[in-house]
């Protein structure tokens, strides 16, 4: 199936990058890495604030549901504030909507089927303590993370640790192999966009837990987290280098130009800066371009750059060596 091919391709790309990083090359060459809608397919951790003011990680559980109830809930919108006590003791169901008394007239003869659902555990998880720095006993964040404390009950934050580690690996690979750059293009925002986990099947949006293995599951990319992951690596490297130097060290400053993240900028801004509209105009004005081809070129450019389509929804992030006062990557 298509989603299996996509998953295999993205997994292969990650494995190749890792294998390249492990090679001890004698002749190092610049590396150029392009990630087009790759980070969004990596696994995320999803956290939700409860009505008690504490954070819990959203986990996946199995429930028995009537077939018609499954279909009804697949078509309804997800309500993160609708909590129903699940079958597992102490866990809270956050995926199913509360059912009114008038809608619970199911016949006992109807077949019950297994279905995955989101639940909140009664205590903290290792990911919650590690990624959000939540106290194991109180379930609340450290006082320094104010935006988590200000979140309202029902708010959701998604964290993609694999994505952050991958961009750090890219930065290290570029640094260790004579330079280069990476370009990351994906849909998302500079910050967590809340509950963005969703599934697609045959170009239609479906519940992300429906039909496991047959649905393309995705989540928006937090470009702010990716940028922070790359730049924090630069700070750690600078601190480590400073602590190991002596006053007599005469290090070549060009070798210390840091690998940093540039952007993110909108898809529209990037393509316009790279001359995409001018390129399309030149193609349209060629004598051998038919009216049909000209319309196809215009429609394609509109889809890529219009704010209501890919122009603002998609973002672009670059990773490369920063030359102070000399240049930024093209398009930025």
Structure, described:
This protein is an alpha+beta fold and 332 residues long. It has 10 helices and 15 strands. The strands form 4 sheets. Strands 1, 9, 13, 14 and 15 form a 5-stranded mixed sheet that branches. It has a 4-stranded antiparallel sheet with strand order 4-7-6-5. Helix 5 (161-176) crosses helix 6 (223-244) and helix 8 (276-285) packs antiparallel against helix 9. The chain starts with a helix and ends in an 11-residue tail after the last strand. Mean pLDDT is 78; it is low at 77-86, 96-109 and 250-254.
Give a quick set of tags describing it.
332 residues, alpha+beta
- Which percent range describes the beta-strand content? 15-25%
User: What is the structural class?
Assistant: alpha+beta
How many strands in all? 15
Flag low-confidence runs. Answer: 77-86, 96-109, 250-254
SS summary, helix count: 10
Taking the alpha carbons of the first and last residues, their distance comes to 37 Å
Largest sheet: 5 strands, mixed
| Radius of gyration, CA atoms, in whole angstroms | 24 Å
Please state the overall shape, judged from the principal axes of the Cα atoms: globular
SSE series? HEEEEHEEEHHEHEEEEEHEHHHHE
Roughly how much helix do the residues carry, as a percent range? Answer: 25-40%
What's the overall average pLDDT, rounded? 78
Q: How do you describe this structure in short?
A:
By secondary structure, the protein is an alpha+beta fold. It contains ten helices and 15 strands.
Write the layout of secondary structure elements.
Layout: H1 2-22, E1 31-36, E2 45-49, E3 55-57, E4 59-66, H2 67-75, E5 84-85, E6 92-93, E7 112-120, H3 126-131, H4 146-149, E8 156-159, H5 161-176, E9 180-189, E10 198-201, E11 204-206, E12 216-218, E13 221-222, H6 223-244, E14 259-266, H7 267-273, H8 276-285, H9 291-305, H10 307-313, E15 314-321
Helix pairs in contact: 1-5, 5-6, 8-9, 9-10
């Amino acid at each position: 199936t298509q989603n299996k091919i996509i998953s295999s391709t993205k997994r292969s790309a990650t494995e190749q990058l890792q294998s390249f990083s492990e090679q001890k090359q004698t002749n190092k060459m610049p590396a150029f890495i392009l990630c087009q809608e790759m980070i969004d397919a990596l696994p995320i951790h999803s956290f939700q604030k409860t009505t008690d003011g504490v954070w819990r990680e959203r986990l996946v559980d199995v429930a028995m549901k009537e077939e018609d109830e499954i279909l009804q809930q697949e078509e309804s919108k997800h309500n993160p504030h609708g909590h129903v006590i699940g079958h597992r003791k102490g866990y809270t169901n956050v995926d199913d909507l509360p059912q009114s008394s008038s809608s619970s007239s199911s016949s006992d003869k109807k077949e019950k089927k297994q279905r995955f659902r989101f639940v909140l555990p009664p205590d903290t998880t290792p990911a919650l303590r590690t990624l959000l720095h939540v106290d194991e006993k109180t379930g609340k964040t450290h006082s320094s993370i104010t935006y988590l404390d200000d979140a309202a009950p029902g708010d959701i934050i998604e964290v993609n640790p694999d994505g952050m580690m991958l961009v750090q690996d890219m930065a290290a690979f570029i640094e260790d192999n004579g330079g280069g750059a990476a370009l990351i293009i994906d849909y998302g925002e500079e910050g967590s966009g809340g509950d963005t986990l969703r599934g697609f099947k045959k170009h239609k949006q479906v519940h992300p837990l429906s039909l496991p293995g047959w649905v393309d599951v995705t989540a928006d990319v937090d470009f702010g987290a990716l940028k922070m992951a790359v730049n924090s690596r630069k700070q750690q490297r600078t601190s480590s280098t400073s602590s190991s130097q002596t006053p007599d060290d005469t290090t070549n400053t060009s070798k210390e130009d840091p690998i940093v993240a540039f952007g993110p900028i909108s898809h529209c801004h990037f393509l316009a800066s790279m001359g995409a509209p001018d390129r399309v105009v030149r193609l349209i004005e060629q004598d051998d371009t038919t009216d049909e081809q000209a319309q196809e070129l215009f429609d394609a450019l509109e889809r890529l750059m219009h704010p209501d389509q890919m122009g603002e929804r998609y973002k672009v992030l670059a990773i490369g060596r920063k030359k102070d006062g000399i240049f930024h990557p093209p398009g930025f």
